[in-house]
Amino acid sequence: MKLSPALAALIIAWFAVLGCIQAVTLEVKEGNSTCIKAQLSASFSISYNTSNSTRNVQVSLPDSATVDTGSSSCGTTGSSPWLVAVFGPGHALGLSFSTNGSLYSVANLTLQYNLSDSSVFPEANSSDVVTVVSSSVGIWATINTTYRCVSPSPFEVGGTTVTFSNMRLEAYMPGNDLSPTESVCVADQASTTPPPTTAGTTTTVAPAPTPPGTPERGMYSVNNTNGTVCLLAQMGLQLNISHFSLSQNKTVQELVNLAPNLTSSSGSCEASSATLVLTQERTTTLNFTFTLNSTSHKYHLSGITLLANWSDMTAPFSASNTSLNYLRSTAGRSYMCNAEQTLFVVPTFSLNTFKLQVQPFEVTTRQFATAEECQMDQDQMLIPIIVGAALAGLVLIVLIAYLIGRKRSHAGYQTI
Ligand SMILES: *[C@@H]1O[C@H](CO)[C@@H](O)[C@H](O)[C@H]1NC(C)=O
Ligand SMILES: *[C@@H]1O[C@H](CO)[C@@H](O)[C@H](O)[C@H]1NC(C)=O
Ligand SMILES: *[C@@H]1O[C@H](CO)[C@@H](O)[C@H](O)[C@H]1NC(C)=O
Ligand SMILES: *[C@@H]1O[C@H](CO)[C@@H](O)[C@H](O)[C@H]1NC(C)=O
Ligand SMILES: *[C@@H]1O[C@H](CO)[C@@H](O)[C@H](O)[C@H]1NC(C)=O
Ligand SMILES: *[C@@H]1O[C@H](CO)[C@@H](O)[C@H](O)[C@H]1NC(C)=O
Ligand SMILES: *[C@@H]1O[C@H](CO)[C@@H](O)[C@H](O)[C@H]1NC(C)=O
Ligand SMILES: *[C@@H]1O[C@H](CO)[C@@H](O)[C@H](O)[C@H]1NC(C)=O
Ligand SMILES: *[C@@H]1O[C@H](CO)[C@@H](O)[C@H](O)[C@H]1NC(C)=O
Ligand SMILES: *[C@@H]1O[C@H](CO)[C@@H](O)[C@H](O)[C@H]1NC(C)=O
Ligand SMILES: *[C@@H]1O[C@H](CO)[C@@H](O)[C@H](O)[C@H]1NC(C)=O
Ligand SMILES: *[C@@H]1O[C@H](CO)[C@@H](O)[C@H](O)[C@H]1NC(C)=O
After folding, report:
1. pLDDT number for residue 410
2. SS3 helix, strand, coil % of the chain, rounded to 5?
3. Structure confidence at residue 42 (pLDDT)
4. Phi-psi region of 158 (alpha: psi -120 to 50; beta: other; left: phi over 0)
5. How far is the CA of 51 from the centre of ligand 3 (A)?
6. Under-70 pLDDT residues of the chain
7. Is the C or the N end of the chain the one with fewer CB within 10 Å?
8. Are residues 328 and 246 in the same domain?
9. Would you say 227 and 235 are in contact if contact means Cβ atoms under 8 Å apart?
């Protein structure tokens, strides 16, 4: 009898903690046929300004989110298929898709939030509806298969972070339900997540034989023509490449770490652009281009080029994307991200970074200037605080329940 209120309190508190994680099912239909179906949990980390400070809030996609049939479409009229989920007063999450016949991918990810919703954004100094878009998302799968990613995957979208987890989705669907065949994301292949129980699942993205583990952190720099250091970088790098393997006679997805002791750096620095070129044993060349906007005094990583000529390849692998927008910071400062970040470059190549710090402009000494830290690091610092607060609350509830229980049984003894 004494235990039951405490137990009830424990269960309630437990559900309150778990309750933040919800999975939502969203479907876009045309007539009787479904063309996009998504089951996912999503949370958003959004910064906004009050009159005298900047605040950060965590919002999760609620169960009540529904598909906006007005904006969503199957894309039969020449436009791309588009899934738009709306929730709360004027918030929306949009996923637009494209295909080339054999693969489909999320072409852009849109988040819209309404700062006048004071329950989410208390004391916001603006009542604007803000829309942010990212076109480098890296969610892609073979057509007629379901994209699966149970592991949380964060995406930086215009200063906010969108984190998907427990995600299963398919576009250009051949039937009205998710295809049983799955394309499994790299994070799930690497983690200890048990493989899906569905029999006969053929993952089109071949699992890497042995994941190479976290790469070692390298220190790289670029010198000016007069010998002074003009670019500093410190990071662990992991290449994630899909290529045709000679030995296995099929396309494989490989994770390869860059070994700092075998890698040399070079590059160049100009007023509004800086290039870092990393070369590992003449077989791998990785080129980073940073661009400075002299008006806004902000810089970002705008281009990544990879050339790889490995013995197991039929032809040299080359990939390049020069319209990227990663690692955004202010001139004269460094950009830092201790958390693992995935920089999507092209469907067949992405780059994982670990414990990264870079400063491509206005390097005055051989040391990094003040760092601007990525959103993911800031979020991770919040987690222990939230967990601590939840545990403290739990202990308090149990203690109160125990005291009440004790008082009641004492009262009982006295009346006998
Ligand atoms: C949808 O299905 C119903 C019953 O199966 C059928 O009567 C109706 O014509 C279908 N509508 C379309 C647009 O195919
Ligand atoms: C908040 O205000 C600062 C300057 O006070 C500005 O640089 C920043 O862009 C603002 N952030 C948002 C999300 O509006
Ligand atoms: C910000 O403004 C609010 C209301 O104007 C005030 O209560 C609060 O103390 C201020 N905070 C700081 C850090 O100035
Ligand atoms: C994102 O996709 C939607 C739907 O295809 C399109 O209307 C919108 O213009 C796209 N946004 C950007 C920035 O490409
Ligand atoms: C679609 O894109 C992938 C990756 O870029 C490529 O391997 C494939 O050949 C393309 N398919 C078609 C039909 O163009
Ligand atoms: C996908 O499935 C549909 C229906 O089963 C089929 O017509 C189409 O050819 C398939 N596409 C590919 C690329 O396998
Ligand atoms: C840059 O110059 C320093 C000496 O000033 C030298 O030790 C270093 O090796 C040079 N780095 C590169 C990449 O050339
Ligand atoms: C080296 O060259 C850069 C520009 O190319 C210049 O800003 C810097 O002052 C020069 N340093 C020395 C010691 O001459
Ligand atoms: C590679 O695979 C293809 C088809 O899967 C097969 O025709 C070919 O003989 C194989 N080549 C080797 C060297 O095993
Ligand atoms: C590079 O470092 C790795 C791991 O620290 C070590 O095993 C390897 O022998 C080193 N190679 C050279 C050429 O120093
Ligand atoms: C690196 O990329 C920049 C911009 O894309 C290009 O100008 C430069 O030639 C490239 N360098 C190498 C060594 O590939
Ligand atoms: C530089 O930043 C300003 C202000 O944010 C913006 O208006 C301009 O378009 C940017 N220039 C380039 C080349 O991106």
Report:
1. 66
2. 15, 50, 35
3. 93
4. left
5. 8
6. 1-22, 190-210, 410-416
7. C
8. yes
9. no
Instruction: Report the alpha-carbon distance of residue 78 to residue 59 in Å, rounded.
Output: 34
Check if 144 has its Cβ closer than 6 Å to any atom of ligand 6: yes
Are 71 and 148 contained in the same domain?
yes
Question: Cα-flanking dihedrals φ and ψ of residue 128, to 5°?
Answer: -70, 155
Q: Say how many Å lie between the CA of residue 212 and the centre of ligand 4.
A: 37
Residue 67 structural domain? 23-184
Domain count, the chain: 2
| Same domain flag for 147 and 260 | no
DSSP state of 158: T
Q: Same structural domain for residues 172 and 321?
A: no
Amino acid at 26: L
How far is the centre of ligand 2, averaged over its atoms, from the C-alpha of 239 (Å)? 34
- Give the residue from 109, 115, 181 showing the smallest Cα distance to 143: 181
Residue in the block written with tokens 């918030």 = 91
pTM above 0.85, yes or no: no
Q: Distance (Å, rounded) from C-alpha 18 to C-alpha 274?
A: 46
Residue from 72, 80, 98 whose mutation best tests the ligand 4 pocket (most atoms within 8 A of CB): 80
CATH number (domain holding residue 262): 2.40.160.110
Q: How far is the CA of 388 from the centre of ligand 6 (A)?
A: 50
Work out which ligand 11 atom sits closest to the CA atom of 303: 5
Give residue 383's pLDDT: 76
